[in-house]
Design goal:
By secondary structure, this protein is an alpha/beta fold. It has two domains: 117 residues, Rossmann fold; 134 residues, Rossmann fold, CATH 3.40.50. Helices cover 38% and strands 21% of the residues. The protein contains 15 helices and 17 strands.
C-alpha cells in the first residue's frame, strides 16, 4: 500500500461520531451549523444540542435548539464527556488559540464540509480518485509539500485538526521560498477582496511593481478595493467575476470573502484572464474565486502556455480541487514545479497550490 492509500484505514470523523456513546454537540450557528446538521441527518448522528462561546449567547435558539454556553455544557457534563463538532472557521490567531485551548480539555472534531455546497471530501472521494491523488503527490517538488498534502488528506478524513497544526506554515514562508516576489511583478489578483493580497505581496517588494490587474465581483468589496487603490499607478480594477470566457453570470453577494457564483443573485460581468491580457504578460496570478478556480484556469490557458507565470491556486473550495486543479495546471505547463502549503486555518480552507518555473 502507498502512503496515501493507507489513509483509507483511518476512522473518519463521521464514523467516529456514528459509533460513539458520547453526546455530540455542534459548536456554532449559521451556515456551518446547517451543513453539519445536514450531514448528521445523512449519517444518522443525533444532535445533542448546540452551543456557542459564552459571550455570544443571548438566550436565543437555532433550528429549534436552545443555544447553550460552552461553559454550561462543560459544567453539566464534565469536560471530556461529550464530543464537540466545530461548525465555523477559525482563520485568525486569537480564534485559533481559543479552539486549541478547548481541544486541551474536550474532544473536538472539525468535520471537513463543502465550502460551495457541492459535497465534502470523504473516504469515497479518496478511494474513487486514488490514482489521481497519488499522481499529484508524486509530482510535488519538496518534502514539505508532500507532508502538507498527506496531512491535509488525513485531516479531511478524520476531522482531527492536529494534522493541520503539524503541517501549517505562515504565508511569509511561501512568499520567501516559493513565490520570491520581485519589484517588476505583473500581478493578476483573482478574488481581490479589499486589496489584502495586493498589500501582502507588495510588503515583499518594498511597494514596487510593474502592473496589477485585480478582479472582485462583490460590489461592497470592490468599493473597499477601489478606496485602497485610489492613489496607486498602473493598476486596473474590474468589478467582475473571473471565468473561462467573457460572459454574464449570477453572483451571490454575501459580502466579506464568502460571495460566490450562483444560479441566481446579482447579475455580474465575468471576464477571462486571457481576454484581459490579450497576449500580454503576467508574472504572478492568484486564484481564490470561491469554487470557480477550474474555470478561471481554463480562461488563463493561453497566458500560462505563453508566459508560465507563477501561480497560487486555492485548493479547498470543492472536494475535487485538491487533486483536479494540480493536474490541470501541470497539463497546461508540464515544466511547472508544484508546491502545496497550508496556512493557519481551521478547517483546511487555506490550503494552496503554488506552481513556479525555476
Amino acid at each position: 500500500m502507498s502512503e496515501i492509500s493507507e489513509i483509507l484505514d483511518l476512522t473518519s470523523s463521521w464514523e467516529r461520531m456514528q459509533n460513539t456513546n458520547l453526546p455530540v454537540f455542534i459548536y456554532g450557528m449559521g451556515d456551518g451549523c446547517l451543513k453539519l446538521m445536514r450531514e448528521f441527518k445523512k449519517y444518522g448522528i443525533p444532535v445533542a444540542g448546540i452551543f456557542a462561546s459564552d459571550e455570544f449567547v443571548r438566550g436565543h435558539s437555532f433550528e429549534g435548539h436552545l443555544v447553550h454556553k460552552l461553559s454550561e455544557v462543560e459544567n453539566a457534563l464534565g469536560c471530556g464527556n461529550f464530543i464537540i463538532a466545530l461548525a465555523f472557521a477559525a482563520g485568525y490567531e486569537s480564534l485559533i488559540k481559543q479552539i486549541d485551548s478547548i481541544t486541551e480539555r474536550n474532544i473536538v472534531i472539525v468535520p471537513d464540509t463543502d465550502v460551495v455546497g457541492v459535497g465534502a471530501f470523504t473516504k469515497q472521494t479518496l478511494s474513487e480518485n486514488l490514482e489521481s491523488i497519488e499522481k499529484v503527490y508524486s509530482l510535488l517538488a519538496d518534502d514539505k509539500s508532500k507532508q502538507v498534502y498527506e496531512d491535509v488528506l488525513k485531516y479531511k478524513i478524520t476531522g482531527d485538526i492536529s494534522y493541520l497544526r503539524e503541517c501549517c506554515t505562515p504565508p511569509e514562508e511561501a512568499y520567501k521560498n516559493i513565490i520570491r516576489p520581485h519589484e517588476n511583478e505583473i500581478y493578476v489578483d483573482l478574488g481581490a477582496y479589499n486589496g489584502d493580497t495586493i498589500r501582502e505581496l507588495l510588503s515583499f517588494t518594498s511597494g514596487r511593481y510593474e502592473k496589477i490587474y485585480a478582479l472582485e465581483p462583490d460590489k461592497r468589496n470592490f468599493r473597499k478595493l477601489s478606496e485602497y487603490a485610489k492613489n496607486m499607478k498602473d493598476i486596473k480594477l474590474y468589478n467582475a467575476a473571473v471565468w473561462s470566457r467573457e460572459d454574464t453570470l449570477y453572483f451571490n453577494a454575501a459580502g466579506g470573502r464568502q460571495g460566490k457564483l450562483s444560479s441566481k443573485g446579482v447579475e455580474t460581468a465575468a471576464l477571462s484572464v486571457d481576454g484581459i491580457l490579450k497576449g500580454g504578460q503576467a508574472t504572478y496570478i492568484k486564484y481564490d474565486v470561491e469554487g470557480a478556480e477550474a474555470q478561471a484556469l481554463e480562461g488563463t490557458k493561453e497566458t500560462i502556455k505563453k508566459w508560465s507565470p507563477k501561480l497560487c491556486v486555492a485548493l479547498y473550495h470543492r472536494a475535487e480541487d485538491i487533486f483536479s486543479l494540480p493536474l490541470m495546471v501541470t497539463q497546461m505547463c508540464p515544466k511547472y514545479k508544484l508546491y502545496v502549503r497550508h496556512f493557519p486555518y481551521y478547517p483546511a480552507w487555506e490550503t494552496n497550490l503554488f506552481a513556479v518555473c525555476e
